[in-house]
Write a structure and sequence with these properties.
This protein has 410 residues and is α/β, with parallel strands linked by helices. It has a single domain, classed as Thiolase/Chalcone synthase (Peroxisomal Thiolase, Chain A, domain 1). Helix content is 33%, strand content 20%. The chain is built from 13 helices and 16 strands. The strands form 3 sheets. The protein has an 11-stranded mixed beta sheet with strand order 5-4-6-8-1-9-16-15-10-11-13, with helices on both faces. The longest helix has 17 residues.
Length: 410
């Protein structure tokens, strides 16, 4: 079995696009949530909150962007920056078959889909072009990344909503671990669209603190009233250890464990038992005991069922008050991007010996399990192992375990 390390990463988020900027926002407890006044036109849409990114697409040639909507553009840009971070942007390993892509999103470009829907209502295909499907297809991010960088290895795509990014990382991990690839470009992306908020709004799962956007979402808090949708992209470069050492790459962390499963019970209501099993599967994969995990980067959607189930699954797995926090209170729920964004931020927090607090967590819901919810100014501590968890509609659970590089390597 090959060992797998993280040699690069990059994100596009509502609170910044590089770790120094994001860390500053986390320390200042500055949220990226804002009121979307333009959503007032949507009748019966209760929430008017979202977390958009302030991002300008690179000036890529038109011939390579024709098949990209915003979601694919963000995915490609994050991947370009991640490959640059890894020192692989111009490496022949990208095009010789040793490198692949594993990338996901909830959907493709929604505006492109509208052209197809228009055909069904107007009986006219005007508006549908040769690239409409390419922009709207679920695998648009993975395909466009492969085309842009000339990747000729495996192409894996995960379109599993809130676990798209983390599942993509896990699948990339397995591709290297079992000797199929040397490098995998992994992650997830999501573009903001009011239809995404409408999905949760119809389930009464969105926050409606429309006049106080800085006070929501409130993961694990008794006064939470739902989630807020965000957007962004995250890419992590996974590499076979010997390949990374041979080229003297900087190593940010080692990915040592991956667990995933499904609830098999309900599409939208999570199951604490299978969530726990996914975490235990990741620990088994990493060949470590639960007490070796110093920090858990939680999913923390700020929904009633989600917070309670996740907190109890976490406690049942660790049987102690393990430290936990989530970045969704700062940047909203970035859906298919969250697993990749949160993994990269967690790796950087581990390397900096500082873990961000849960924003807006003032009174822990007594229905949640008694774990160590990080608040205040965050937590200064050294961690050798951390866990990143994500859970999605359909009962899709993922858990990743990262090991800090440089501490007792063997």
């Amino acid at each position: 079995m090959n060992r797998v390390v993280v040699t690069g990463g990059s994100v596009i988020t509502p609170i910044g696009h590089d770790w120094p900027t994001i860390k500053k926002r986390l320390k200042q407890k500055k949220s990226g949530i804002t009121r979307m006044d333009e959503w007032e036109k949507y009748k019966r849409l209760h929430t008017k909150l979202a977390a958009p990114v302030e991002w300008t697409p690179p000036d890529y040639p038109r011939k390579v962007t024709r098949g990209m909507g915003k979601v694919a553009l963000m995915a490609v840009h994050a991947s370009e920056m991640a490959l640059k971070c890894a020192g692989l942007l111009d490496s022949p390993v990208l095009t010789n078959g040793d490198s692949g892509v594993s990338f996901g999103s909830s959907t493709g470009n929604v505006n492109a889909l509208l052209d197809f829907y228009s055909m069904l209502t107007t009986n006219d295909i005007q508006g549908i072009t040769a690239t409409t499907y390419i922009r709207s297809m679920p695998q648009t991010c993975a395909v466009n990344i492969a085309l842009f960088f000339g990747l000729t290895g495996r192409l894996l795509t995960s379109n599993t909503a809130c676990t798209a990014g983390s599942l993509a990382i896990g699948l990339g991990f397995e591709a290297i671990k079992f000797g199929h690839q040397k490098v995998m470009v992994c992650g997830g992306a999501e573009e903001l669209n009011p239809t995404g908020s409408a999905v949760f709004d119809t389930l009464y799962a969105t926050s409606i603190k429309n006049d106080t956007p800085h006070l929501t979402p409130r993961p694990f808090d008794k006064d939470r009233d739902g989630l807020v949708i965000g957007e962004g992209a995250g890419t992590i470069i996974l590499e076979e250890l010997e390949h990374a050492l041979q080229r003297k790459s900087h190593i940010y962390a080692e990915l040592v464990g991956f667990g995933t499963n499904t609830d098999g019970k309900h599409i939208t209501q999570p199951d604490k038992n299978t969530m726990e099993k996914a975490m235990r599967e990741a620990l088994k994969s990493a060949e470590i005991d639960p007490d070796q995990i110093a920090y858990v980067n939680g999913h923390g959607t700020a929904t009633h069922h989600g917070d309670i189930a996740e907190s109890h699954a976490t406690y049942n797995c660790f049987q102690r008050a393990v430290p936990i926090s989530t970045q969704k209170s700062y940047m909203g729920h970035t859906l298919g991007a969250c697993g990749a964004i949160e993994s990269w931020l967690a790796i950087n927090m581990m390397n900096d010996n500082w873990f961000a607090p849960n924003l807006n967590l003032e009174n822990v819901d007594p229905a949640c399990a008694q774990i160590d919810y990080i608040t205040g100014q965050g937590r200064v501590m050294e961690a050798r192992y951390i866990m990143c968890n994500n859970f999605a509609f359909g009962g899709i659970n993922t858990s990743l375990v990262f090991r800090r590089w440089g501490l007792e390597q063997s």
